[in-house]
Amino acid sequence: GDSVTQMEGPVTLSEEAFLTINCTYTATGYPSLFWYVQYPGEGLQLLLKATKADDKGSNKGFEATYRKETTSFHLEKGSVQVSDSAVYFCALKNTGFQKLVFGTGTRLLVSP
Amino acid sequence: DGGITQSPKYLFRKEGQNVTLSCEQNLNHDAMYWYRQDPGQGLRLIYYSQIVNDFQKGDIAEGYSVSREKKESFPLTVTSAQKNPTAFYLCASSVGLAPGSGANVLTFGAGSRLTVL
Fold it and tell me: How many Å apart are CA A60 and CA A65, to the nearest integer?
């Protein structure tokens, strides 16, 4: 079945460092890909998405490019802030049924 | 502002008790979902509903029940049959079945943390 694999955390960075969180997927067909973010004690919020190959999703300085050839959707940010500390979830949705398949999440810790 | 309200935020349950988690949305979304979140396991789908008076089991429905009597409401009951109910429960909604990007995006509530004593 469809699945998403994320790098294990925590990822620990200093403020203004470059961020990459790896995400790869396995799916039949042409899924849509998402990054959600969860701040402590809260629900998930959509960060960005891409619906077809070579699309780039971007929001709040974060970017991810849908790479069908490598089945990847890595999350990047050029300069992280302390306020970016959160858990980041990669997810996919295939055609048909509405179910989102989530990765296990990657915790990001940014220190001043 | 439109959104999803989950209550209570924290809930404690004794062994053998049923508890019900509330989820209300004012987004006029057709589809609603319940996810369970455990440390290191990501989110797992419990139940989902695509329309009023209809719902389907997700990946881990055993020990849970739901109802969808109103479009705005999708309560989850954690029954005594659920062997390990301590977890963080997240309710979500989406526009529905219409094709296109809008149907793919889920809006989440703030979650309810259930602890079994």
Answer: 15
Contacts of B107 in chain A (CB under 8 A): 46
Structure tokens at A14: 């200093």
Structure tokens at B74: 């999708």
Question: Cα separation of A39 and B73, whole Å?
Answer: 25
Beta carbons of B71 and B52 less than 8 angstroms apart: yes
For residue range B40-75, what is the model confidence (pLDDT) as tens digits?
778 999 999 989 999 999 999 999 999 999 999 999
Report CA-CA distances (Å) from A108 to A21, A29, A81, A90, A94.
9, 31, 11, 13, 27
Whether A43 and chain B come into contact, CB under 8 Å, resolves to: yes
Q: Which phi and psi angles does B101 have, rounded to 5°? A: -65, -30
Q: How far apart are the first and last CA of chain B?
A: 36
Q: Choose among B6, B50, B108: nearest Cβ to A98.
A: B50
> Given this model, what pLDDT does residue A99 score?
75
Strands A106-111 and A11-14: parallel
Cβ B111–A49 below 8 Å, yes or no?
A: no
A69's CB contacts (< 8 A; 6+ apart) are: none
Whether residues B48 and A100 touch (CB distance < 8 A) is answered with no
Q: Give the pLDDT band of residue B95 (cuts 50, 70, 90).
A: confident
Q: What is the pLDDT of residues A25-36, one digit of tens each?
A: 998 888 899 999
Q: Is the pLDDT of residue A59 over 70?
A: yes
Q: Token digits for B15?
A: 């062994």
